[in-house]
Amino acid sequence: MSTFFGLETAKRALTAQQNALYTVGQNVANANTDGYTRQRVNLQASDPYPAASMNRPAIAGQLGTGVEAGEVQRIRDKYLDVQYRENNSAAGYWSAKSGALSKMEAVMDETGTKSSLSNTMEAFWESLQDLSTNPEDVSARSVVLERGQTLTDTFHYLNSTLSQYKTDVGSEISVSVNDINSTLKQISDLNQQIAVLEPNGYLPNDLYDKRDSLVDKLSNYLNVTVEVQKSGGNAKANADGIYNIKMAAADGTSVYLVQGSNYNAVEVQGGTDSNSDGILDGPPANGEMAGITIGGKNFAIADTTGKVTFPQGKLLGLIDSYGYQYAGANGTVEAGAYPSLLDSLDKLAYTFGNVLNAVHEKGTDLKGNAGTAFFTFGTLTDYKGAAGQIAVNSSLTYDKIAASSNGDSGDGLNAINLANVVTFDLSSQNVQLEGISGRLNIAALGLPLASGTITSNYEGLIGKLGVDAEQAGNMQTNTASLLDSVDMNRKSVSSVSVDEELTNMIKYQQAYNAAARMITMTDEMLDKIINGMGVVGR
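Now predict its structure.
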């Protein structure tokens, strides 16, 4: 046994405790660093002396040789990471959906604002009722024209504002796709760096932290799973390995977003290239989104029954808001929050305008002529785009408003009929009009709204929007709460507790001081042996 055996043992203790103190310092320095995972030095007893061999010295058993630092390891629970990422996908979806629906509610604002569609329609009906009592009054007739114009302006405003918001969501989809691709590239680059270091016995903790933070970010956009591939070589047993990131749709279709140092870019199927980088990141120039292309595979947003199959996440929330199309049993079907509301507005405007026109044309104007169309829809051949195209007939002047049922002086019965349009049953085939022979067959007009009344259809539209927005808001709150809960659990394991680190600092410092004292004691012993022995007779 070496004379310096005890000195070497104490030196190992000094080195090991020093490494532990340096790791504590690293933790404390990064206590407020986002994405940092606390680290610890795994202290382990060094190999005893002597080792088992045929020529081992004949001493009583084995003597311990001290301690050594095994490796600096991150403290992280992989199961909590999986939970966090699953909840992060749901939170991302409902956050995007709730944001879009909140904007739609703000545009449709039915909280009593004078400029709301219901109020402008009400004002229009009131002007017609006033006209029925004074059918020859120029002022009353002018008010009808003005309020008719205000009503069409309101339809135009709602249509243009909602269309602009939809375009904004399309731009956000483009930004999201580019962000996803940037994240995938960074993860693949980190995989490549880790694959070089791990086989040499290193644990690149800082690279692990960066990669996990990027996977967390990715999980907000898409619901992904992480498969771990060992690096090989002399990689340690607790090395994290290489991340292969997979995305699977509800219909069973799956694809690797990242596989080792390679990644598959995410693109919009049939989309546009917003920044000329060769990636189709924006929605198609014409029509709704049909799907997402990854690695040559097309992922539809929904199946033929309309069931959404694309993985949940912020990207799906944006697509669901912007609008998408799928191949239904009877042809292509369009779905999504903005397209649905815009379509409902078009149906309302077209139905309202055509029913009012049908009644107006049965009346007589101030000059005794038959009434003409009150509203026009430009060159439209069906209801699509009606909310943006509806307009008061440019040839209609105050004297051409057909307020009379028969042209008699003081007769305003048709103005009453016009005011009653809001209450007509849209499925009726025989609406009786005041003062006019024959019945109005609304069902024969072939209108997109074929049941209920104008009022009930609009109330249904607003009611559905309110319910959808409330549900999305509640789900956003719930998913965010669950995400926070999982994040707190994860942080309780992985984040730095300054109090705990201070405790460890004292513990390692005391051990370091004891090892230093051991060296001093050993030095004194050696001094006695070297300088105090064998001096007799000198």
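The chain has a mean pLDDT of 92.
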